[in-house]
Amino acid sequence: MAQTNPPFLTGVPELLVLRMLSGREMYGYEIVKAMRLVTGEAIGFGEGVIYPVLHALEKGGALKARRKSVNGRERVYYAVTTKGRRRLEHLSDEWRRVSTGVNSALNGAHGDPEHA
Amino acid sequence: MPDERFESLRLELLRSGVNPVYVERTIAELGEHYCDLVAAARAAGYSAAEAEREARAALGSDRAIAAAVLAHPELLCFSTRWPRVAHCLHSAALIGTIPGLPVIFCLEHRPELARWGAAVGAAATLMGAVMAALNWLIVLPY
Q1: Which one of A19, A92, B78, B103 is at 20 to 30 Å from B87 when CA atoms are compared?
Q2: CA B7, CA B23: separation in Å to the nearest integer?
Q3: DSSP assigned state of B76
Q4: How far is A27 from B30, CA to CA, in rounded Å?
Q5: What is the value of pTM for the model shown?
Q6: Closest CA to A65 of A74, A54, A50, A52
Q7: Which value does ipTM take for this structure?
């Protein structure tokens, strides 16, 4: 039976956030800047939507947050937990599996579907 | 200052049943993000008015942000996620208060208190069952 992949379909923001935070802790604005940089601005989104993703990941134990005052500004820094690293591995595997399948379909590895 | 810009979003999130802790955190972090965006736009040569406009556009519309928050049920209040359970617990707490208060003030009259407690307990159980059934059937819209 074919594997379904709802976590992949709904998990792209989570995957990118966890990947950005896997190197070092960052606050929201830094995360968005890093995402734009590494994706070559290929993924467009309103920057404000990053916060519900961060809060949900923190609630689920994948991230931990700490407040830090920097130059008179109150920042909330996020860092990946052990559980978050496991989730990142899982989402990365899902992404590779699905993208391999999509690439295979786009490259016509199984022949032309119109003549299948 | 930035928080006032997000007042309508804050009210919308609260009305939608988002946990107030996450509402306040979201608004505070959006405010900081907005300040960073304005500073970056100013550094890029935009005027103050243009920088503010660019920053607000970059954050996305209130509707999009609210939809993103509501897409995560774990950020909602317990009573929004589980309205029936919340109503039942609320009613149970109210019913529990009725016999609870006299008990505190009449501890020295234990035999009478025991009889009264049994009677009230039976009545509360019956009443609670009726209210629980009603709560289960009637769910207030949010």
Answers
A1: B103
A2: 11
A3: B
A4: 11
A5: 0.75
A6: A54
A7: 0.80
Q: Tell me the CA distances in angstroms from A73 to A69, A100, B42, one per residue in order.
A: 5, 44, 18
Measuring CA to CA, which residue among B124, B70, B75 is closest to residue B96? B124
Q: Return d(Cα B102, Cα B37) in angstroms, integer.
A: 60
Residues across chain B: 142
Tell me if chain A has a CB within 8 Å of the CB of B3. no
Please give, rounded to a whole number of angstroms, the shortest distance from the CA of B64 to a CA of chain A.
7
Q: Which of A52, A74, A76 sits opposite B68 (nearest CB)?
A: A52
Structure tokens at B55: 């920053």
Element (H, E) at A46: none
Strands A63-70 and A73-80: antiparallel
CB B81 within 8 A of CB B73: yes
pLDDT tens-digit series, residues B11-66: 999 999 999 999 999 999 999 999 999 999 999 999 999 999 999 999 999 999 99
Residue B18 bridge partners (DSSP)? B76
Nearest C-alpha neighbor of B72 from the set A62, A70, A23: A62
